[in-house]
Automatic annotation (TrEMBL):
Pfam families to which the protein is assigned, alphabetical: DXP_synthase_N (PF13292), Transket_pyr (PF02779), Transketolase_C (PF02780)
UniProt-recorded name of the protein: 1-deoxy-D-xylulose-5-phosphate synthase
Residue numbers binding thiamine diphosphate: 78, 119-121, 151-152, 179, 291, 376
InterPro entries reported for this sequence: Dxylulose-5-P_synthase, THDP-binding, Transketo_C/PFOR_II, Transketolase-like_Pyr-bd, Transketolase_BS, Transketolase_C, Transketolase_CS
Length: 646
């Protein structure tokens, strides 16, 4: 169903059309944009509150700046829906985040207005600074604007970039979109600092004087620039008492301004355009602005799924049979259960307490379950510090966000062999968030680090056993990967058992072909049993559980008995679980075998439902069956090593 845009929005095919409108029409454009987002997201799903919060900022930027010549760089990009709609993608917006549709984030391939691909946070200032310095080198007179949220501002990368920008003369404007929220409430001292700045009467009085003076000096003409500096410097000395963090970093600070006052924003941006060098505009906004329920419960409405826009009822699938829980719920309930018994257990999340369900433990044990803000690197080293003092930290990080903390895993945890327990959530295809969020690479990047145990549960009970085993196993770090979403066991709350580290499970004996799986994807093989029977094949199935240490006894059994082996993983095929099996085979003299590896191929796979993406990668149910059938049909024909990957 195509949603009809409002009267003005219908005529805006690109920002040049927007710029033709008089200023007094922008309010209506904002109203229509909000409505269009509400209409579309309620039907098709997606991120919600963040875009509603930056409608005026988006309109003002495209109105004032000469985009795409001037560069807007969005941080994370989950808030870029107004931008997408204004920049030629209004009529495709209903395909947002769907298979084959628009990406949910800015993406360079998608539009010339998307200056930098995003999805992970806190990259915008670095990227915009790179562009600004490139412009300078090339002699271009572009403007460069990084739009970053208060949550994303907590990450080290943002500070690294400000530290660099502030010492440069690059022409860059940072817009700090301060809504006091990440997905969950924003964390840390910075948010309090921003609130203090926003509410301090003293600061605001001085700030108003600066703005008034700016207004006056603008009329001075060519010397305005120096005069502005002089005026500001005089006022800055008065502000020493309450010095400004951003000014201290060399960024000229402007604000706070009301991020929903479209007229004021346009004027402010027009002024800022004339001021060269690195600067920051602090805009205060409300996440979910314009949709009352979203303003009230901002975490729930960050990405609510489809909903009835009139009642606010979120549409959930209705089931008639008991459903398996999400792995996330099992993690959250299990860590709490264990923490009640063991006071050394602590939980850490970098800004994803609702997403990973650590919020279950946070409610009961706020001091032992900690959201450190968007700070994956810190989360890992903080966990290492806890472990160094004998605590038992569970550090839960989405697989793709762990990419950012790799050095900390190697340098701070594994080289020192500190028993941190990593839970890598969203391992495998993440779904609608797309390429930036797929947990594709963790098997290769974790299994190559000495000391680290690398495990993946096939179901909820196994996750509980692995978490329990990790607590008992105090001799090295331990990582457990599991996917986004449901497991397979409605009755999941089984007693926890210690399992032997490095021991797999034989799920079923068989003939001709052995299938080796790692993690949840093993259930697809179980679910195929009727189809195997119908096809007259009987493959053996082993759930390896650990890719490191790998179950050598089991592999000896497999390769002694079978000449044909299929490996399946929901992860990158290059260097992953299948590769580990190949290495083992070669190292152990099993060269006369056929092996087919199924997993995420060596290409970027975009967004879609998990099953759609697995199909594209060739390891959905049909793909697995096809691979096994193909292999079983040529049982006796091969005498050389045949290594195939899909
Ligand atoms: C490196 C990284 N960690 C975590 C996330 C998950 N994440 C996406 S949006 C978000 C909150 C961002 O807060 P903020 O920048 O203030 O934007 P807001 O949603 O408030 O507009 C988080 C934690 C991410 N995208 N990237
Ligand atoms: C933009 C972002 O990074 C998050 O909002 C992400 O979309 C959350 O994903 P989950 O819904 O899997 O928690
Ligand atoms: Mg925020």
């Amino acid at each position: 169903m195509l949603i009809q845009p409002g009267e003005l929005l219908a005529k805006i095919d690109n920002p040049a059309d927007l710029r033709k409108l008089p200023l007094d029409k922008l309010y209506q454009v904002c109203e229509e944009l909000r409505q269009y987002i509400i209409d579309n997201v309620s039907i098709y799903g997606g991120h919600f509150g963040a875009s509603l919060g930056v409608t005026e900022l988006s309109v003002a930027m495209h109105y004032v700046y000469n985009t795409p010549y001037d560069r807007i760089v969005w941080d994370v990009g989950h808030q870029a829906y107004n931008h997408k709609i204004l920049t030629g993608r209004r009529d495709q917006f209903h395909t947002n985040r769907q298979y084959g549709g628009l990406s949910g984030f800015p993406k360079r391939d998608e539009s010339e207005y998307d200056t930098f691909g995003v999805g992970h946070s806190s990259t915008s200032i670095s990227a915009a600074l790179g562009m600004a310095i490139a412009s300078k080198e090339k002699g271009d007179d572009r403007q460069h604007i990084a739009v970053i949220g208060d949550g994303s501002m907590t990450a080290g990368m943002a500070f690294e970039a400000m530290n660099h920008a502030g010492a440069s003369d690059a022409n860059i404007l940072i817009i700090l979109n301060d809504n006091r929220m990440a997905i969950d409430p924003n964390q840390g001292a910075l948010k309090d600092y921003l609130t203090d700045i926003t509410t301090s009467p003293f600061y605001n009085k001085i700030k108003d004087e600066v703005w008034n003076m700016l207004g006056k000096v603008k009329k001075i003409g060519p010397h305005a620039q120096q005069a502005v500096s002089a005026a500001e410097n005089a006022l800055k000395s008065a502000l020493l008492e309450q010095s400004n963090l951003f000014e201290a970093l060399g960024l000229r600070y402007f604000g706070p301004v009301d991020g929903h006052d479209i007229n004021h924003l346009v004027h402010v941006m027009e002024d800022l355009k004339k001021i060269p060098g690195p600067k920051i505009l602090h805009a205060v906004t409300v996440k979910g602005k314009g949709y009352a329920l979203a303003e009230k419960d901002q975490t729930k409405w960050h990405a609510p799924g489809k909903f009835d826009k009139l009642t606010g009822e979120i549409k959930k699938k209705v089931f008639t049979t008991p459903q398996a829980p999400k792995y996330q719920t099992v993690f959250g309930e299990t860590i709490l259960e264990m923490a009640r018994e063991n006071e050394k257990i602590m939980g850490i999340t970098p800004a994803m307490p609702s997403g990973c369900s650590l919020n279950i433990m946070m409610k009961e044990m706020p001091d032992r379950a900690i959201d450190v803000g968007i700070a994956e690197q810190h989360a890992v080293t903080f966990a290492a510090g806890l472990a160094a003092e004998g605590m038992i930290p569970f550090c839960n990080i989405y697989s793709s966000f762990m990419q950012r903390a790799y050095d900390q895993v190697v340098h701070d945890v594994c080289i020192q062999n500190l028993p941190v327990i990593f839970c890598l959530d969203r391992a495998g295809f993440a779904g609608a968030d797309g390429a930036t969020h797929h947990g594709a690479y963790d098997i290769p990047f974790m299994r190559c680090i000495p000391n680290l145990v690398v495990a993946a549960p096939m179901n909820e009970a196994e996750l509980r056993h692995m978490m329990h085993t990790a607590v008992k196993h105090r001799t090295s770090p331990f990582s457990i990967r599991y996917p986004r979403g449901q497991g397979v066991m409605p009755e999941w709350k089984v007693p926890m058992e210690e399992i032997q580290v490095g021991k797999g499970r034989k799920i079923k004996d068989g003939e001709d072909v052995a299938v080796l799986t790692f993690g949840h994807i093993g259930n697809y093989v179980v679910q195929l049993s009727d189809r195997f029977q119908a096809e007259g094949i009987n493959p053996a199935h082993y759930d390896m559980r650990f890719v490191k240490p790998i179950d050598e006894e089991m592999l000896h059994e497999v390769f002694t008995k079978f000449d044909k082996v299929v490996t399946i993983e929901d992860g990158a095929i290059m260097g992953g679980f299948g590769s580990a099996i190949l290495e083992w085979m070669m190292d152990n003299g099993f060269t006369n075998k056929q092996i087919v590896r199924l997993g995420i191929p060596d290409t970027i796979i975009e967004q879609g439902e998990q099953l759609e993406l697995q199909k594209e990668a060739g390891f959905d149910h049909d793909g697995i069956l096809e691979a096994i059938l193909k292999l079983s049909s040529n049982v006796k024909s091969k005498s050389k090593v045949l290594v195939k990957s899909k």
